[in-house]
Design goal:
Layout: E1 2-3, E2 9-11, E3 14-16, H1 18-28, E4 36-39, E5 45-49, H2 57-69, H3 85-92, E6 101-106, E7 109-114, E8 118-123
Antiparallel strand pairs: 1-4, 2-3, 4-5, 5-8, 6-7, 7-8
Length: about 130
């Protein structure tokens, strides 16, 4: 587990330095409520936790994808090309008592948004259009 912190943080495979977290931290600046993220040892899965009452789901998705792919968020393909971002935000906007889960493809990635406040990015082996 990597905790949102600019100093050295611990992960399952050892410690990560501030330099290792620079891009991840920059992407996470999009989602100030991000509290924890987890990069699986195989490097094909990434999970971000956030507070949906503070940040929209679509912003959390962009931050998670940018951190996972080590890409500047501004350089990513627009998220609205893969999903209706307004609908996604509305679906996960509090208050909601329902447990919700939405999954969609974003290039070569499978994105799963769940309640309360999780985004999972998984690398797939097949790229699909939109």
């Amino acid at each position: 587990m990597i905790h949102r912190n600019r100093s050295t943080a611990s992960s399952g495979s050892g410690s990560r330095s501030r330099d290792d977290d620079e891009l991840e931290g920059g992407a996470l600046d999009l989602v100030p409520s991000a509290t924890a993220l987890d990069r699986r040892a195989d490097g094909r899965r990434y999970e971000l936790e956030y507070d949906p009452s503070a940040d929209p789901a679509s912003q959390a998705v962009v931050a998670a994808v940018a951190a996972f792919t080590e890409t500047d968020p501004a350089a990513l393909e627009p998220l609205h090309a893969a999903v209706d971002t307004d609908a996604l935000d509305a679906l996960f906007r509090p208050p909601t008592d329902a447990s919700r889960r939405v999954a969609f493809r974003y290039g070569r990635l499978e994105i799963t948004v769940g309640s309360p406040g999780t985004v999972t990015v998984t690398e797939t082996t097949v790229e699909t259009d939109g």
